[in-house]
Amino acid sequence: PIGDPTRSTAALQLAEAHKHLGNISAAQAAIEQAQLAAITDADWAAALAALGGMTSGMGDYTGAQAILEEAVALARASENSLTLCRVLYALGSQYWRLGKMDRVHALMTESLTLARALGNAQRELYALNALATVAWLQNEAEAEHNFQSIYRQAVAVGDRLSAVTALNNLGVMADDRQDYQAARDYFQQALT
Q: Is 65:94 a contact under the CB 8 Å cutoff?
């Protein structure tokens, strides 16, 4: 119903499902429903974050950046820390696509700080993985240490996706340095 405070969130969940099924036009329509149903700044920020992700997925990185910048401003105004944490991560990911690593680092660090304050292990692991990936470009040893730490933390909290992502990154790093045995071991571990 109109005015239902959960309607915007439900529409965004529907958009995500459509996106995963490859139905982009239905996902866009659901995002529009979320925008129409948005009541709070946090609702608007979440809807814009979804729109920014969709825009980026279609290859319009500059357009996505502008949408996500607006989402961050709304999330800050909302004082909803979880929404801000998510939107900062989304904007940081967008800056990654644009090759602006200094901005990626700053946004992911802020997202990480919020995730830790919220006690949200999943968001923390997402931000840590992004930061380790940025570190990989500058200091492979530090990045490897970070990915190993992320793996242990992910296993401890039962976050399989983050654990597999860390193992995959460790495998790619080993492969890059031509340590094929270690690469195979990491990739095999990710499959078990």
A: yes
Calpha distance 152→155 (Å, rounded): 5
Count Cβ atoms below 10 Å from residue 80 Cβ, excluding itself. Answer: 19
The per-residue pLDDT string of the chain (192 residues; one tens digit each, 9 = 90 and over) reads: 667 878 999 999 999 999 999 999 999 999 999 999 999 999 999 999 999 999 998 999 999 999 999 999 999 999 999 999 999 999 999 999 999 999 999 999 999 999 999 999 999 999 999 999 898 888 888 899 999 999 999 999 999 999 999 999 999 999 999 999 999 999 999 998
Of 182, 130, 125, which is closest to residue 149 (Cα–Cα)? Answer: 125
| Displacement of CA 107 from its chain's centroid (Å) | 11
Separation CA 170–CA 187 (nearest Å): 8
